[in-house]
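So, could you explain the following?
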Amino acid sequence: MSINSNIRLTEISKQVKHAAVAGMFYPSDRNELSQMLKNMLESAKNNYPPPKAILAPHAGYIYSGPVAANAYASLYPVREKISRVVLLGPAHRVYVKVLALSSASHFDTPLGEIEVDKKSMQQVSKLPGVEIFDEAFSQEHSLEVHLPFLQMVLEKFSLLPVVVGDASPEMVSTFINTVWGGEDTLIVISTDLSHFHDYQTANQIDKRTAEYIKQLDYEKIGPQQACGCRPVNGLLKIAKQYDHNISVVDVRNSGDTAGNHDRVVGYGSFLLYEKQSPSDQEKKQLLDIARESIQSGLKNSTPLKPDISEHAGILIANRGVFVTLEIDHQLRGCIGNLEPVYPLATGVALNAYNAAFNDPRFPKLTAREFEACDISISVLTPRQEIKFTDDTSLLEQLLPGTDGLIINKGGRSATFLPAVWEKISIPKDFLAQLKRKAGIDLKHAPDQAWKYQSISFSTEDSN
């Protein structure tokens, strides 16, 4: 029985959805489950960077667990950053019209309870086709088998669980887009691949399906290719729209893991990475936003406030970004945010305004100066921590001309964008000048360091 999706979810008292398939799909004993997960994750491939989204299987752990582990192992470097997981899986037990939510406040596994994200629940409950339908979750394994993996690899997170029924790619993609979030949010799509073919036939079908997924060709993926085709198609539609990338991590079947070769089920693990570079059109839009924000500052003393609902793609993705102003190739202001705390369009507007009027090194930009001003925008990739013992080992991991660098020691920190290599080309000098900027003694190595890259473009390029 469904419940009106407009219910005031914040008023629900604690209601735990207990595990339904513990002891069947995975061990019900906490210690046995932990050891099993640990063994699979330690044996997993670990050479993939952390993704934005995961596609992974949902069969019993002896069958699909090793394949799923190859996706989940990629999350260890960001286990403290991810605080929300949006988990979508297909309905196996009951018919679901479109998208089903649970009224539970917590989901329970042998590893403990996971709190449901009430704020996200309120947000998506207003979308068409979304309803609270607890029966869809009562015996559903497609979501539950992922929870112990998530509990094992992440520190602490809230959960938005969704059972996907007879939903179009458009409906699913709208749902996922609504909760896409920044680096704190992970999207997980639960799906197995082909079912009950002989080993050779399954290999052929699953190989083609993996290629469809990699090519974002969601229209060719139906129930014969993947039991979770509907959530898969919704994610791939977003990926195609915004030019994201999919990496194929592992494709096997039950005949490879724990079953015979007569009737097998296919499994695959895939990782989605967000597009990092704006298109030429998006670059133009961002430069226009920067100009308009400075013009707003000159006229109204306030920055432009872009309407995010009017934008799409990378412009609404949370990104670190710097805006630099130059006149006759001389610096006239530079402000940015290293952390992806704003949608890119918002970050560009704020940083352009602050570079023009709030950089403490310069007076406020005048209208006459603005006419001669060249605007540069640097969109940052997610930063990667550098493990090092001294300055030499730090510099060995830095690629001159490509990597930006952040250092920190005793709370003092500073960064150089990759563009700084054009003026300081010798790595030792690059680090020394960055230490001076941070106020760090040149004799001492930083406590922490991170590298990142940037995609830079300017009004000068477009002239």
